[in-house]
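ASSEMBLY PREDICTION REQUEST
Request ID: AP-0331
Submitted by: J.K., bench scientist
Number of chains: four
Total residues: 1542
Priority: normal
Notes: Please return the full assembly, not individual chains.
Input sequences:
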Amino acid sequence: MELLYDSEQQAFREEVRAFMKEMAPVDIAAKAHTGQRYDKEDMKRWHGILYEQGWVAPKWSKENGGAGLDPIQVHILDEEAFAAGMPRLQAFGLSMVGPVIIHFGDDEQKSRYLPKILSGEEFWCQGFSEPGSGSDLASLKTRAERDGDKYIVNGQKTWTTQAHIADWMFCLVRTDWDVKQQEGISFLLIDMTSPGVEVRPIITMDGEHAVNEVFFDNVEVPAENLVGEENKGWDYAKFLLSNERTGIAGVGQSKAEFARLKAIAKKEKRRGVTLSEDPLFRAKLADLELKLRALEITNLRMLIEEKEKGAPGPISSILKVVGSEVQQGIATLTMEAVGSYAAPFLPESLEDSWNGEPIGPDYAAHAMPYYFFRRKASIYGGSNEIQRNIISKHLLGL
Amino acid sequence: MELLYDSEQQAFREEVRAFMKEMAPVDIAAKAHTGQRYDKEDMKRWHGILYEQGWVAPKWSKENGGAGLDPIQVHILDEEAFAAGMPRLQAFGLSMVGPVIIHFGDDEQKSRYLPKILSGEEFWCQGFSEPGSGSDLASLKTRAERDGDKYIVNGQKTWTTQAHIADWMFCLVRTDWDVKQQEGISFLLIDMTSPGVEVRPIITMDGEHAVNEVFFDNVEVPAENLVGEENKGWDYAKFLLSNERTGIAGVGQSKAEFARLKAIAKKEKRRGVTLSEDPLFRAKLADLELKLRALEITNLRMLIEEKEKGAPGPISSILKVVGSEVQQGIATLTMEAVGSYAAPFLPESLEDSWNGEPIGPDYAAHAMPYYFFRRKASIYGGSNEIQRNIISKHLLGL
Amino acid sequence: MDFTFTEEQSLMADSLRKAYESDYDFDKRRAFLDDTATFHSPAMWQTLAENGFVGLLAPEEAGGFDGGGAEIMAVTAEMSRHLALEPFLATSVMGVRLLVTAGTDAQKSNILPQVVAGEANLAVALYEPGQRYDVAPQTTTTKVDGDDFVLNGTKAVVVGGDSARWIAIGAKLEDVGSAIFLVDAGADGVSKKPYRLVDGRGAVDLELSGVRVGADARMAADDAETALAEIEDWAVTASLAETLGAMEMARDLTHEYLQTREQFGRPIGKFQVLQHNMADVFSDVEFARSMVFWAASEVANPDAPTRRRAVSGAKAFVDNAARNIAERCVQMHGGVGVTDEYALTHYVKRLTLGQILFGDRDEHLLRYTNTNA
Amino acid sequence: MDFTFTEEQSLMADSLRKAYESDYDFDKRRAFLDDTATFHSPAMWQTLAENGFVGLLAPEEAGGFDGGGAEIMAVTAEMSRHLALEPFLATSVMGVRLLVTAGTDAQKSNILPQVVAGEANLAVALYEPGQRYDVAPQTTTTKVDGDDFVLNGTKAVVVGGDSARWIAIGAKLEDVGSAIFLVDAGADGVSKKPYRLVDGRGAVDLELSGVRVGADARMAADDAETALAEIEDWAVTASLAETLGAMEMARDLTHEYLQTREQFGRPIGKFQVLQHNMADVFSDVEFARSMVFWAASEVANPDAPTRRRAVSGAKAFVDNAARNIAERCVQMHGGVGVTDEYALTHYVKRLTLGQILFGDRDEHLLRYTNTNA
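STATUS: Completed
Returned structure:
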């Protein structure tokens, strides 16, 4: 008996689960079990399936082509998709720039961009961080100078996830230098094929190429690609970041990853006893599972609040911090569970293109890159230090 | 085989141990096993025994009546005294004001005060903290105004340990209001029987009366009771506090208390298995024991440095922080080990005067007050936050 | 699941708050604390009875409120905010729940009304010395003598045993199995060693030496361990709600202290390390609240493993949060945080008590893993 | 105990430092890292041999240095500071120590000189798939065939097995007991799956299928488990010193970053939370150093429980510190701390590897408690 959800929500979950069972591609799901990496093709395929079903943009209103689900339904959909081993959809289009265009874009922008975000035809990336402005986002320096009906953009972005496979970037640029930092920023949409855009890979410690540096050398951007008003970009960014906070707890994904960890712990043994029965390891598992449970219920409390009152407040910061701790905890215990076979480092074996022989059990190769990958969970989207600043300032008035 | 000490040090330890075996009073030692409180009489008696042996002031030079031991010998003596269940001697006289008088006092002060500190005839207390100045000691407000051959003292001290049984207080007072805070402070010796001195008890959460508020209402203090120069008191206080840091790790005491914890864990059972064999509890014990071991070796490294180079540097701050964590860890696990019988709260049963019936095992009554008492370990003598400030400023230059 | 209280539950908490606010400030409470005869305020207990709180879990036909986990949560959290000393946990949670689930018809009709009216208190003896947190009777035994039973044994840390008129006692039966007896606390052979718990509430150690009871004292539980385990879970749930109330108060006192206490020329709440500590305390309280909701929503679940999984899981989690919050709040206060004159100390005491009553964290973590799917 | 290095040990570390500083900067090392043929720099390995480091633990008569725990600590910590990829741990610590303690006279006189000269590397196979951190051979077996032994089985994560000319292999004997065989890595039936470890050093999984060796391959150890457990403790000690060296570098890089990186208009080292984190990192390194001293001072202790107590105790403690330091240093850096182009990443990889090689923290905590007085 599960008391967290009412019968209508339970029914929706059954519906989603049945859909997943029928429609989630088996070959994509198989990757989740061993931690293989999804490629762009996997993401596009799954995107297409959800698009057909009308669930690809669950939070968008129906008039904009979304599913118009409430926050709890969105959460259920998210959980079930992860439980079925499906990849997270491209958030940059669906959860970030999409809502900004819906709220602040003009009609032309809406009809130009939204359909292709929904269909998955165009991939997006986010041009916010710069080498000199990480946590201090407002100090960004990339400049866009108006020249007739276009802007000339110069500067550099960094940590740009999937810039190398993206068609478009939504980008914060400085358009006024004589005002308070926050008041001189604009929100531009940049075609990644524009002359002068150069993408250079950043290889991270997990051996993956997911983030990039992006350089702009006199890139011409049509003025019609400005979203909303010039110099109001900071407001749109704040709106975007507050949307990003929904789902930031990562409950669905963590539940799926925790299930994988538990399965590994049932296979790995210490002195003849499985780790799931080993007193120390199972205590660590239980501790983490309880933290995940607390996260899940707290997240649900916020979703109910959001459903009733609109957007979530700064209280979502507490979900971000603990959510990242849970994600990191799962990855850490996974590495511990795998033991010495986490020591061989073969991140290339996680790609479809790899043809080598596996070392150790099939879940081993994933463990170490995954541990490294998760270090970022407490850094991006506003580091946990920034989150605690937000809590102490905005919630506690300190 | 114990590699930490050389053969000469081992021999000294044997000598000390033999002395303890012969001379440590059995009735006092018995209190250590159950955590009964030592009273003033116990402390005086043990003080007298060490005085006879010439070990009461191990660090003082022989010409000042001390034992002239090196820092490692002092540490060994300390360890063995705790292992024998003896109380810590009054540090206020022997380790704090004594060295200040030796270094900065005049001959009259030396001959007036030092012999009675050594003999234990006079007990001291420390008048540093004030209600408004805890971590920010230099902001103290108690004022001493020169009036002919005396000072008139007005103000208030707080957290004054053992003021109610002390004969004398060494006290920081403000003698100049027109200079930088640190430059207007003087170091006065105040007779606690002076008219106008009022001591009010502060009862702490462990149910004990150990600390006090001390009020000064036009207290007359002879000018000859000024140590060193007027307005140089801050320097003497810094000297005193740097001496206080030696032994701040509390290794000897923690080893003795850890041994008591281990003995309790061998008696208490969970589901028929002693806690010392219970997988979770023994892992916690082992973790704590290793932390204590790391503290012990690190402390010894510092002592060797002190022996070779003189006083310990700010690096002793790392001993304070971890030393307090170890002390608190031992008290916490002791409470956990005792279990529900730590719930009855009878701090009065820890006093000699108590005649009631014990509740639960004989070590039970101590557990909860001890846990509460140890909360102070990370607060007094410069809170752990202040210690981390010191490390980051003075060692790391941040 | 609805995570907000119903209007009725909120009104209940409000009326409690008003009662405690008017007659139970810090100084008045200190007087109750110093009263070694009752260990609580009989007048306040009477008020609670008159307002229907004592019978919160009793059925309506017995004059009760027919409440469940959510009501327990609302009421005990509120009482804890006022550091209430009244024997609500022992009588109204443990005792009444046991009477309702395991009382004979005669016991229910004779005793329950007195209890609901505040005229007779209850206590349930869960543990025995040396058995730690095992509720199965081990050393307490019965012999049949004619129509009577004769009980011998010892019970440890019986919360509320000091004021209880009736104490429920689990005992091994002569032949096989076990039973629970509702024993008159004044019966011959019952000897009580009363004392305060660390938060000031009363408890006793109990010695039973040839205590003779009639067959009507035997409760209608097939097996003492199963019935007492359920009562223990209710006690844990109530204790968790107390912990939540105390956490909130510790948090608020510390929050206020950070804004008013000055050091180095500014409020200490301006120091980033304290800001982050305070942020973590704030966060910990909210996550703990979620887990208390979980326990409260499942404690009445007739499926014992599901009930236990939620209750023990919540306890293992919340104990940890309680310790962190208590220790950090003291640390942020510095010296004043450990003085008996300051309210924080008393919330810390309650938070600490909660960690060792009715099973500690390791115990519940173990129980949780044993129910693990 | 003297906690400072002797002059000789310091000179040793200095000469190493100079060798690595001149030929092994970050970019050059990257080239070695990219070389999948050797997994390290053969030229540097030759330099190490010529300067007497490879034979650090070998007796003087074999051209060695006759070193012990303190020398291992000085040398491996220094190599780790330069992220050295050379197979020192496998050959000079594990291999040489095993030859010295368990080699036959013939093995010592034939093989040791080649090893010391850097002409033939060694590796010791400690574990088997599925057996986690148990060094007792379980699935690797021998059959006697005339004067020869025939080996079958699998060995997991053999550090340095990629470049080893000889690999020591524990195996169950046909009748009873076990033995260690020094097997030519190129022998028929030996198949190696080479790969990089997470810090870039080479290792192999090993399959032995009907590998025929002469009786002279059998080492002079009564029992494989006891002998391999001692080698494992030497490996742990060396690995702990590597961890110490990597900790120091991670600390220093972070310390520098805090002073140079600016956010919100000032160096991030001005933020109190980061100051305190940095203070804790500084402190953790010193406490870890003390524990590495402990392991190094006891690893040669002939009393096995005392040796194990110190080594496993140190490992359980230092692993914890290593994780905390690595994770906090990354966190203080933010994004740049996880890029492959920045040195910190590589120290973090070494710190992480140290936590799972040769027994993880739980394993050593268990071993420590099992030696507990």
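REVIEWER COMMENTS: The mean pLDDT of chain A is 94.
SIGN-OFF: pending second reviewer
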